[in-house]
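Title: Prediction job returns without error message
Component: structure pipeline
Severity: low
Priority: P3
Assignee: unassigned

Description:
Job completed but the reporter wants confirmation the result is attached to the right record. Sequence as submitted:
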Amino acid sequence: MKKLNCDEKLTFDMTPMIDCTFQLVIFFMLTLNYSQQDLDDRIKLPGSELAKPVEVVPETSIVLQLTPQGTVLTGGDEIPVSALKNLLARERKVIESSRRRKIADAIIVIRADRDAHTGRVQQIIKASQETGFEKFVLRAKEDYTDRLGGG
């Protein structure tokens, strides 16, 4: 066994550490979902075994977030469900005024809090249908508990 001399300096090669750090940065840059920017952290989605990640992000989508109190968060505003028809009518006019987008391609994305009443979700769908929207997506988070043996 070799004794270390006090005059000798230990060196540590930082190249693998820097390499790993850059790989992590690149990984997070590639997996970051920018479409989640308009989502509110107050909404706690219900878990579902059937939930799956979005494969294709729709070009024309309107995100409506239902709170446990029964109000809808959209575009930074909080409105009652009863006022939703007016908002959706304005959104429809904006879509129809655009030459590239069609109302038939628009998707209403409903993010309902796990504690929200299902009747409110039905009211949102009804208001959307009455203003001409036909496609809906309900958001949930993927539930891993059964796959991990957690019951």
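Comment from assignee: result matches the submitted record. Residues 146-151 have pLDDT under 50 and may be disordered.
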